[in-house]
C-alpha cells in the first residue's frame, strides 16, 4: 500500500500501464473510502423529511434521478474532468488552488516573501491554456494586487474551506461508523437497540483515534481490498435488487423525474436535498489526495470502479423501495438479503473505519499546511512512516477530534442530524473550490472570462441549491458544522493577525547595517569558539534582538548565523534549492544569513542531519564565492548582500562535503581527487570535523581561512539563540485589538508548542532571551 516518495514516484506515474493500474487500485482505499460508504445513509437522510411513498413511485424515482445526476455532474464532470487539472505541481486541495493564485498574482499572505522565491523551479507552472493572458485577466490581476481587502478575502475563503475540512474530520467518522452499525436495529429489539448502537459506535471511534499514533503503514495494504470488497458487495446487492424487484428502475435516469419530484413534494423535497447531497461526500478527496497518486490513476479508479458501483448500489436500493412502500425505516440494510446482513455489516464497519481514517489523515495534513502558512499555532508533528511522504500524526488535534466526534455521536444519536451537519461542511468546501477555480481559469490558465463565468454559474448554481437546503437545517444539526468551523476560524485569525503584527514589529525595529559596521569585526565583545544560530523571521536586515544580545552578553560565538526557516507558496522545494546563503557585512565579521525554504507540504526536521546540511551549505557558499559565484539573486532590501542558492549536502557531489567522526576513529587518509582541510589538534574534542574540498577549481587563501574558522567553530559546537517574545497591544489600541493580542494570541502562544520543542534543540545548547513587543 505504501508508496515511495520523491522523484521515483512522480516518474513512475507515467511509466507503464501496470504502474498506472497499481496506483488506481491503491487509490480506491485511500481516496474513495468516504465516498464509497455514502449509500449507508443517503436514502435514510433523504426520506427523513416525511416524504411519502406513492404507488406511482414518483418519489423514489425522483430521488434516484437526483442522486444519479448529482454524482454525474459534481464528482465526474467537475472534479474528474476539470478540477483535477488544476494541480499545483502534482498536489491538490484548497491550499493548492490558493498557492497557484499566489504565484500568478501578488496576493500571498506570507509576510516574508522574497524575489528569490520566484526563481524556484516549481514556482512557475506551465499553464494549460496556450493563449496569452487576456485583457480581462490582466485587469483582474492588477485589481487583486492593488486591494488588500480582496487579498484578505481570498485568504479567508481558503481558510473557510480548511475549517470546513476540519469539521468534516469530526463529522465523517461519526456518521460513517454510526450508519455502519445501524444494521443492528434489524437484529436487536427496539428497546435494546438504543442502548447498543451508541456505545458500540463510541468504542469503535475511540479505538480508531487511539490507534492513530501507530500510523497506517503497517495495515495500509488492507485499505484498498476492504473498500474494493465493499464496492463489489454493494454493486452485487444492487444488481440482485434491480433484477429481483424492478428491472425498469433505469428509467429514473430521465431528468424529468427530478422535476416531478420537486413539483410534488415542494418544500419537503427541497429540504430533502440535504440528504441527497450526502451521496457526494468525499468527492473533494479526489483532488485533495492528488499528491499521492496521478490524475490518470484517480480518473481510472473512479470511472471504472467507484462510479459504476455507486450507481448500481443506489439503483438497487431504489428498486427495493419501489416495491416496499410501507416499511418504517428507509435504510441501507433493509435492501440487503436477510442471510447476508451480518457479513455485510462487518464489511461496512471496516469500510467506515477506512473512510474515517482517510479524512482524519487529511485533517492532520490541512492543519499542518495552515501552520506552515502562519495561520495556525505550532503543533507537534509525528511522522508515522519513514517511507511515505506526508503520513503524519498530530497528537493534540487527534484527541480534540476524538472528543468532538464522541460528543456529536452521543449528543445526536441519529444519522439525520449528523448528516445535516456533514452535508453543510461538504458543500461549503465545494463552493470554495468552485470560487477559487473560477480565478484559476482566468489567471492561471489564461482562458476567456466567459468560461469562468459559465463554470461558476453552472456548478455554483447546483452547489448553492444544495447549500440552501443544508443551511435551512441550522437548528437540526447543521449548526455543529458552523460552530466547529467558527471556532477554528477564530483560532486561525487570531494567530495569523498576531504573527503578522510580530513580523511588522521586527521589520520596523530591525538594526541598521551602519550600526553593525561601527562595532568592528569583534562586534565590541569577546568572540569565542563555536557557532551561534540566531533564529529570526526576517529575511533581510538584522533583528532588534541581536542588539539586545550584544549589549547584554559579555561574549559571543566566532561564527554567527542568522537562520530563517520559511515556507513558500509551492508544495515542495527541491533539495538543491533549499538554502539561500549570504554574508552580512564584511567577510571578517563572520556573520552569515541562511534562509531555509520549504514548501507547504514539506516537512522540516531539525536534527543532526539538518545541522550538517546547514554548515555544509555555508562552506559551499564560501568556496563558490572564491571560485566564481553560482546562481545568485538580489533581494530588494538595502541591507542585504547577494544571496547564493545552495543545495543540501547530497545535491552537490562535486562540491564541499563534510565528515564528522569521533577523534578515536579518525585515521590519516587522503585521496588523489580531494584534499582535506583539518582542524588543528585540540584537547579531547567531542568530534573531529573535516571539509573535503575538490581539487579544482582552486580556492584562495582568504576562503581557506574562512573555511578553517567555520570548521573549528563546528567542532566546538552549535548554540541556538532564540528570541522569546511577549506581545502586548500599544496604549490607545482598540478594545478588540487588546482582546486579540493580549489575551487571544498570548493564550495560543503559551499553549502551543514552543519553538525549542518544535525544532528539537538540545536544552543544554539553547539560549532564550525574552522581549516585550508593543504592537
From TrEMBL:
<dbReference type="GO" id="GO:0015079">
    <property type="term" value="F:potassium ion transmembrane transporter activity"/>
</dbReference>
<dbReference type="Pfam" id="PF22776">
    <property type="entry name" value="K_trans_C"/>
</dbReference>
<feature type="transmembrane region" description="Helical">
    <location>
        <begin position="388"/>
        <end position="412"/>
    </location>
</feature>
<feature type="domain" description="K+ potassium transporter C-terminal">
    <location>
        <begin position="530"/>
        <end position="774"/>
    </location>
</feature>
<comment type="function">
    <text>Potassium transporter.</text>
</comment>
<keyword id="KW-0813">Transport</keyword>
<comment type="similarity">
    <text>Belongs to the HAK/KUP transporter (TC 2.A.72.3) family.</text>
</comment>
<dbReference type="Pfam" id="PF02705">
    <property type="entry name" value="K_trans"/>
</dbReference>
<feature type="transmembrane region" description="Helical">
    <location>
        <begin position="300"/>
        <end position="322"/>
    </location>
</feature>
<feature type="transmembrane region" description="Helical">
    <location>
        <begin position="478"/>
        <end position="498"/>
    </location>
</feature>
<protein>
    <recommendedName>
        <fullName>Potassium transporter</fullName>
    </recommendedName>
</protein>
<feature type="transmembrane region" description="Helical">
    <location>
        <begin position="195"/>
        <end position="214"/>
    </location>
</feature>
<feature type="transmembrane region" description="Helical">
    <location>
        <begin position="153"/>
        <end position="175"/>
    </location>
</feature>
<feature type="domain" description="K+ potassium transporter integral membrane">
    <location>
        <begin position="23"/>
        <end position="517"/>
    </location>
</feature>
<dbReference type="InterPro" id="IPR003855">
    <property type="entry name" value="K+_transporter"/>
</dbReference>
<feature type="transmembrane region" description="Helical">
    <location>
        <begin position="60"/>
        <end position="81"/>
    </location>
</feature>
<feature type="transmembrane region" description="Helical">
    <location>
        <begin position="20"/>
        <end position="40"/>
    </location>
</feature>
<keyword id="KW-1133">Transmembrane helix</keyword>
<feature type="transmembrane region" description="Helical">
    <location>
        <begin position="269"/>
        <end position="288"/>
    </location>
</feature>
<keyword id="KW-0472">Membrane</keyword>
<dbReference type="InterPro" id="IPR053951">
    <property type="entry name" value="K_trans_N"/>
</dbReference>
<dbReference type="GO" id="GO:0005886">
    <property type="term" value="C:plasma membrane"/>
</dbReference>
<feature type="transmembrane region" description="Helical">
    <location>
        <begin position="221"/>
        <end position="243"/>
    </location>
</feature>
<keyword id="KW-0633">Potassium transport</keyword>
<feature type="transmembrane region" description="Helical">
    <location>
        <begin position="342"/>
        <end position="367"/>
    </location>
</feature>
<dbReference type="InterPro" id="IPR053952">
    <property type="entry name" value="K_trans_C"/>
</dbReference>
<keyword id="KW-0406">Ion transport</keyword>
<feature type="transmembrane region" description="Helical">
    <location>
        <begin position="450"/>
        <end position="472"/>
    </location>
</feature>
<feature type="transmembrane region" description="Helical">
    <location>
        <begin position="424"/>
        <end position="443"/>
    </location>
</feature>
<keyword id="KW-0812">Transmembrane</keyword>
<keyword id="KW-0630">Potassium</keyword>
Amino acid at each position: 500500500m505504501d508508496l515511495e516518495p520523491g522523484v521515483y514516484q512522480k516518474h513512475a506515474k507515467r511509466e507503464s500501464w501496470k504502474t498506472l493500474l497499481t496506483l488506481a487500485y491503491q487509490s480506491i482505499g485511500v481516496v474513495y473510502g468516504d465516498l464509497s460508504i455514502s449509500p449507508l445513509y443517503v436514502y435514510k437522510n433523504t426520506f427523513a423529511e416525511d416524504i411519502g411513498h406513492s404507488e406511482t413511485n414518483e418519489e423514489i424515482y425522483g430521488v434516484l434521478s437526483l442522486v444519479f445526476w448529482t454524482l454525474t455532474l459534481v464528482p465526474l464532470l467537475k472534479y474528474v474532468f476539470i478540477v483535477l487539472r488544476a494541480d499545483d505541481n502534482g498536489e491538490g486541495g484548497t491550499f493548492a488552488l490558493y498557492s497557484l493564485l499566489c504565484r500568478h498574482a501578488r496576493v500571498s499572505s506570507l509576510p516574508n516573501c522574497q524575489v528569490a522565491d520566484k526563481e524556484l523551479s516549481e514556482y512557475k507552472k506551465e499553464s494549460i491554456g496556450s493563449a496569452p493572458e487576456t485583457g480581462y485577466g490582466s485587469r483582474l490581476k492588477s485589481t487583486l494586487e492593488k486591494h488588500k481587502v480582496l487579498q484578505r478575502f481570498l485568504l479567508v475563503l481558503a481558510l473557510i474551506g480548511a475549517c470546513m475540512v476540519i469539521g468534516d474530520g469530526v463529522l465523517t467518522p461519526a456518521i460513517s461508523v454510526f450508519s455502519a452499525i445501524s444494521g443492528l436495529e434489524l437484529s436487536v429489539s427496539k428497546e435494546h437497540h438504543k442502548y447498543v448502537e451508541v456505545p458500540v459506535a463510541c468504542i469503535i471511534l475511540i479505538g480508531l483515534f487511539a490507534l492513530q499514533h501507530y500510523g497506517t503503514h503497517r495495515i495500509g495494504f488492507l485499505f484498498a481490498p476492504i473498500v474494493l470488497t465493499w464496492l463489489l458487495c454493494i454493486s452485487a446487492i444492487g444488481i440482485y435488487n434491480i433484477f429481483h424487484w424492478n428491472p425498469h428502475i433505469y428509467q429514473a435516469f430521465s431528468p424529468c423525474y427530478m422535476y416531478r419530484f420537486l413539483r410534488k413534494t415542494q418544500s419537503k423535497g427541497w429540504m430533502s436535498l440535504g440528504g441527497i447531497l450526502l451521496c457526494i461526500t468525499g468527492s473533494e478527496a479526489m483532488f485533495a489526495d492528488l499528491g499521492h497518486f496521478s490524475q490518470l490513476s484517480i480518473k481510472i479508479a473512479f470511472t471504472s470502479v467507484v462510479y459504476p458501483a455507486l450507481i448500481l448500489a443506489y439503483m438497487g436500493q431504489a428498486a427495493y423501495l419501489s416495491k416496499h412502500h410501507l416499511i418504517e425505516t428507509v435504510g441501507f440494510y433493509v435492501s440487503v438479503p436477510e442471510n447476508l446482513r451480518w457479513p455485510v455489516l462487518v464489511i461496512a464497519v471496516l469500510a467506515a473505519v477506512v473512510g474515517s481514517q482517510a479524512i482524519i489523515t487529511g485533517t492532520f495534513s490541512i492543519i499542518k499546511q495552515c501552520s506552515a502558512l502562519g495561520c495556525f499555532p505550532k503543533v507537534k508533528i509525528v511522522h508515522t512512516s519513514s517511507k511515505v511522504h506526508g503520513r503524519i500524526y498530530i497528537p493534540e488535534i487527534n484527541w480534540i477530534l476524538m472528543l468532538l466526534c464522541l460528543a456529536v455521536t452521543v449528543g445526536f444519536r441519529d444519522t439525520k442530524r449528523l448528516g445535516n451537519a456533514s452535508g453543510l461542511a461538504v458543500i461549503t468546501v465545494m463552493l470554495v473550490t468552485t470560487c477559487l477555480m473560477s480565478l484559476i481559469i482566468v489567471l492561471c490558465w489564461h482562458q476567456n472570462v466567459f468560461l469562468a463565468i459559465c463554470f461558476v454559474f453552472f456548478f455554483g448554481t447546483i452547489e448553492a441549491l444544495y447549500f440552501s437546503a443544508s443551511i435551512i437545517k441550522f437548528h437540526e444539526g447543521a449548526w455543529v458544522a458552523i460552530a466547529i468551523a467558527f471556532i477554528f476560524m477564530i483560532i486561525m485569525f487570531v494567530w495569523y493577525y498576531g504573527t503578522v503584527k510580530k513580523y511588522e514589529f521586527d521589520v520596523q525595529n530591525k538594526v541598521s547595517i551602519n550600526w553593525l559596521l561601527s562595532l568592528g569585526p569583534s562586534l565590541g565583545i569577546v568572540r569565542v569558539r563555536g557557532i551561534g544560530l540566531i533564529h529570526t523571521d526576517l529575511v533581510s536586515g538584522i533583528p532588534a534582538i541581536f542588539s539586545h544580545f550584544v549589549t547584554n552578553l559579555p561574549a559571543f560565538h566566532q561564527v554567527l548565523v542568522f537562520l530563517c526557516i520559511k515556507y513558500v507558496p509551492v508544495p515542495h522545494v527541491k533539495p538543491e534549492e533549499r538554502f539561500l546563503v549570504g554574508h552580512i557585512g564584511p567577510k571578517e565579521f563572520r556573520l552569515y544569513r541562511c534562509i531555509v525554504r520549504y514548501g507547504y507540504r514539506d516537512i522540516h526536521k531539525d536534527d543532526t542531519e539538518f545541522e550538517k546540511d546547514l554548515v555544509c551549505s555555508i562552506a559551499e557558499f564560501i568556496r563558490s564565492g572564491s571560485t566564481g559565484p553560482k546562481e545568485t539573486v538580489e533581494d530588494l532590501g538595502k541591507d542585504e548582500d547577494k544571496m547564493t542558492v545552495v543545495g543540501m549536502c547530497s545535491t552537490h557531489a562535486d562540491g564541499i562535503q563534510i565528515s564528522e567522526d569521533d577523534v578515536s576513529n579518525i585515521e590519516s587518509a587522503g585521496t588523489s581527487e580531494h584534499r582535506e582541510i583539518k582542524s588543528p589538534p585540540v584537547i579531547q574534542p567531542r568530534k573531529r570535523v573535516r571539509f573535503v574540498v575538490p581539487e579544482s577549481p582552486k580556492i584562495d587563501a582568504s576562503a581557506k581561512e574562512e573555511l578553517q574558522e567555520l570548521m573549528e567553530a563546528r567542532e566546538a559546537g552549535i548554540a541556538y539563540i532564540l528570541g522569546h517574545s511577549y506581545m502586548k497591544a500599544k496604549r490607545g489600541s482598540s478594545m478588540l485589538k487588546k482582546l486579540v493580542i493580549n489575551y487571544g494570541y498570548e493564550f495560543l502562544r503559551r499553549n502551543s508548542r514552543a519553538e525549542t520543542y518544535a525544532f528539537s534543540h538540545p536544552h543544554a545548547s539553547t539560549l532564550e532571551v525574552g522581549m516585550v513587543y508593543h504592537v
